[in-house]
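Memo subject: From amino acid sequence to discrete backbone structure tokens
Action wanted: Derive the backbone structure tokens from the amino acid sequence.
How to read it: Take the token row as a discrete description of the fold.
Attached in line: The record itself begins immediately under this heading.
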Amino acid sequence: MSAQTSVKRITAPQITERKNGKPIVCLTAYDAPTANILDEFCDILLVGDSVGMVVHGFTTTVGVTLDMMILHGQAVMRGSQKALVVVDLPFGSYEDSVETAFRSASRVMMETGCNAVKLESGSYAAETISYLVERGIPVMSHVGLRPQSMNVLGGFRARGRRKVVEDEIIANAIAAANAGSFAVVVEGTSAEIAEKVTKSVKIPTIGIGASEKCDGQILVTPDMLGQFDRVPKFVKKFADMKGLVEGAVKDYAEQVGNRTFPAEENTYKFKHK
């Protein structure tokens, strides 16, 4: 009998232990096949509410529902083995009370099997984070540019270019860390603020548009794969997925049109008995 080896998932405490250590590699994932590809290379897979924009065609993340997050979380868990899987709590699912937050977060954990949840961390969030962690739910927090608050902030704009905003971001990060978050996403801030946040908290900072000063990095996977023409300034396109798909579909359409596909090697043969 051959020996079977089981792959152990990375845990939230293991991520926390990476503070000031080897940079933490994170990407978003929304489906099983993509998660399967990313899993080998990533420490964290985030099932982000960005799914609303990059998969469902929404203009913001505000319309994403808890059911949508659970559906995509289930798919990512099926497709991955190693990476810590974190699922976003969407807008409206946690803000009004700690009890509401626990109901949403526990449902996500139970129905997806994921390892942690993420919530955007304004000044109100510390109590919620503490409440969830005390009840067995690991929490990743999120400061800086908070997409769920884009209607208040005036759109998807970088934050942290003024002293008053700097103080707010640092204070929110410290509050989230002290409340028990195992890591904190820092989005859309200057390198100076990202460095100050990183030095101010004892948990890892995961940057997105926040320079190399953070303990790790995350990008929206379709953005970094080049699926869209327009991407935020902080995104580097590591591939041209849009061009690759367009080329393949063009070839397919031409071959269907001139009847060179399906070819003989793509066709079943009738067998005479």
Observations:
- Residues 241-257 form the longest helix (17 residues).
- The chain has one domain: 12-239.
- DSSP finds eleven helices and eight strands in the chain.
